[in-house]
Amino acid sequence: MVKLPDEIMEMLKTRQWFDPEWDKEKESFDPEEQQHTFNGHDAGAQQLGQSDPPPGPKLLWHGEAKEREKRTWLINKLIPERGCGLLSGQWGAGKTFGALDLAGSVMTGTPFAGQEVARKGGVLFLAAEGQDEVQIRLQAIVDHKLKMNGTHLPFTWIEEVPSLKLGFNQLLEFVSEASAHMREKFNLPLALIEIDTLNATADFKDGNDAAEGQSVMNRLRQLSQASGAFVLAVDHFGKDIEAGTRGSSVKEASADTILAFLAQKSLSGNVSNMRMAVRKVRGGKQGQEFPFNLEIVDAPDNETTCIVNWNSTPQQDKGSSERDPWQGAAAKTLRGALAHVISQEGEDRDLLGTGKSVKAVKAQSVRTEFMKRYPSDSEKKDAKRVAYHRALKAAIERNLIASREVDGEDYLWLVPMFYAA
User: Fold this and answer.
1) Are residues 386 and 361 in the same domain?
2) 190 with 250, same domain?
3) 102 HSE (CA, 13 A, CB side)
4) Alpha-carbon separation of residue 97 from 75, 109, 179, 232, 306 (angstroms)
């Protein structure tokens, strides 16, 4: 039993320490009784047959034996069995197709991106966006990839998705119903909950607010704890793609796994070099990239859709110049500065007189943003200016950036092939 210090015992006798409303004239106060309460042994509660309160936190010491549960996975070394994560990426990079491909693998036990499915189970899909596409895309996976025509899969979805903030109790009811039905009809656990998209279900007042972002991620974790499933939310990259997932950084910090869907996009909308990068995984290998393409396939009612085809074995991201032509700190800073200014000030202009517009910005705005971003030794006053001009010259020579003077004003734009690099 823990003994309260004498000075605290004396305070308990003379002061209203635990309850400011306590009136010593109306109610007696026994510090010895308080000593029992402090130690979690309330005699009155024991007389009523109530059990002792659960033990609180305790110190753990290195070298002392402690049995821990072995880490378990949904997708081996990629997605843990329980927890929460993000499937983030650029617009048009195949995020939802990837999410449904993952669902198909979990339901059938077939590998996902070449990785073993460690826990087979049912899927609950919360379609807050693109509701009309869910059934079409899932059926395409069944018909063209899984080859399971006529088979009912343990997949259920919601098209009117309650808010993670205000409708969380209703969400828990849906999860409970889905889990029970999976067990009853398919004899499988609910293994995966997918949310498409996080922004559409979170009702953010300020997406950049850290406290609000943490609260939403806590909701995802609570869904996982209540269901025993992994909760994966589809999310978007911000305007500056180098910064990763849009909004507060606490979202990525709180996630157990982050799968980033990346691509190069031209101004005309053509997409190439599609890949899924393992941006983060607790207990696994980060930095791997899994290339894929989207195959156009027939869908019911004379429609078409896409399925994911994984191309080859994963590759470690080594930042090679062959894949990323923006080499060096100054070049990467220039790319980030230009992409940011385009997102804020870009205007569609026919600068070459070809009838085709490009999204261009004033060179001075890019230079200003570069100066804010690029670190330099304060003793070398011209270091930033020199770095900017060298990086700009190299980017133009490599055909990464194009420039044009119009009415005495220099304009810059990204060459389409590397617009979303």
Assistant:
1) yes
2) yes
3) 28
4) 17, 18, 24, 14, 7
Cβ density class 128-151: b for 16+ within 10 Å, e for less: bbeeebbeebbebbbbbbbeeeee
| DSSP SS3 for 201 | helix
Question: Does one domain contain both 161 and 262?
Answer: yes
131: in domain: yes
Annotate 247-280 with b (16+ C-beta within 10 A) or e (fewer): bbebbbebbbbbbbbbbbbebeeebeebbbbbbb
pTM of the predicted protein model = 0.64
Strand 288-299, strand 303-310: pairing: antiparallel
Q: How buried is residue 209: exposed, middle or buried, by Cβ count under 10 Å (0-12/13-18/19+)?
A: middle
Looking at the fold, whether 414 and 358 belong to one and the same domain comes out as: yes
Regarding whether 29 and 112 lie in a shared domain, the answer is no
SS3 190: strand
The three-class DSSP label of residue 239 is coil
Token code pair at residue 266:
């031209």
Residue 58 falls within a domain, yes or no?
Answer: no
In tens, the pLDDT along 146-186 reads 988 778 999 999 999 999 989 999 999 999 999 999 999 99
Cβ neighbours of 212 (radius 10 Å): 19
Residues 159 and 225 in one domain: yes
Query: What 8-state DSSP symbol labels residue 185?
Result: I
Q: Tell whether 77 and 221 lie within a shared domain.
A: yes
